[in-house]
Amino acid sequence: MENEEEAPVSTPFGGPARNAPGLQNLPTPPTGWPVGSYATYAEAQRAVDHLADSDFPVRDVTIVGVDLMLVERVIGRLTWGRVLMSGAASGAWLGFFVGVLLSLFSPNPAGIALTPILAGLAIGVVFGVIFAAVGYGASRGRRDFTSASQMVAGRYDVLCQPRNAEKARELLAKLAMGTNSD
What is the pTM of this model? Predict the structure, then answer.
C-alpha cells in the first residue's frame, strides 16, 4: 500500500481537527530549552505575558506542566434529598426547554402555548427524579459525596526554541529582578 493516504485527524464530534498553522495534529512531546520554572501556572503565564509585552516571538515558547496530578476536592456530602432535588432541577430545565420548543411549533394562533411548557416541565421533573434515584441507588453508598476534579502540575516549565532561548532567559531574569525589588 504505497500510495495510501493518512486519514485526517478529526474532533470527537466528527469534524476535522483545526490547529494553528504549523502545529502538528498528533500529540507530541514539547521541544525547546528551559528558560524558566514556576510553582504555579499563573506565574508561568505571567512570564510568557512579560515576553509578549517585550515583543518577544512567543510562538517559540511553550508552557509545560510537569509532575501532573489529578486533584479531587470534596465539595459536600450527598444525601437522598440532595440527589432527588438535583435530579428534579435538571429534569425541570430539560423539560422546560422541550416544552418551549413544542409550544413554538404548536398550532396555537396566540403564540406560545402554555400547556406544552407545563407538561414538559412536569414530565422533566418526574424523569429527572427517577434517573437521579436510580443512579444514586446503584452506587449503594460507595460515593456519598460530591467533588470537583482538576488536573494540576507540580511545577510549570517555560521552554523556548534554541534560536531565542538566551534572549528569553535575559528577559525573564529582568522580570525576576523587578519582582524582587518590589
Answer: 0.58
